[in-house]
Amino acid sequence: MIQPHGGQLIDRVLKGAALDEALKKAASLPSIPLDAEQTSDVENIATGVFSPLEGFLGEKDFRSVLDKMRLANGLAWTIPVILAVDRKTADGLAAGADVALLNPAGEPAAILHLAEKYGFDKAETARKVFGTDDTAHPGVAKIMSLPDVLLGGSIDLIRETPTPFQKYKLTPRETRRLFQDKGWSTVVGFQTRNTPHIGHEYVQKSALTLVDGLFINPVIGKKKKGDYRDDVILSSYEELIKNYYVPERTTMAILMMEMRYAGPREAIFHAIIRKNFGCSHIIIGRDHAGVGSYYAPFAAQEIFADFPDLEITPLFFRSFFYCKKCGAVVSDKICPHGKDHQIQFRGTEIRDMLVRGEYPPAELVRPEVAKIIMDEKNPFND
Question: Within 13 Å and on the Cβ side, how many CA atoms surround 182?
Answer without folding.
Answer: 23
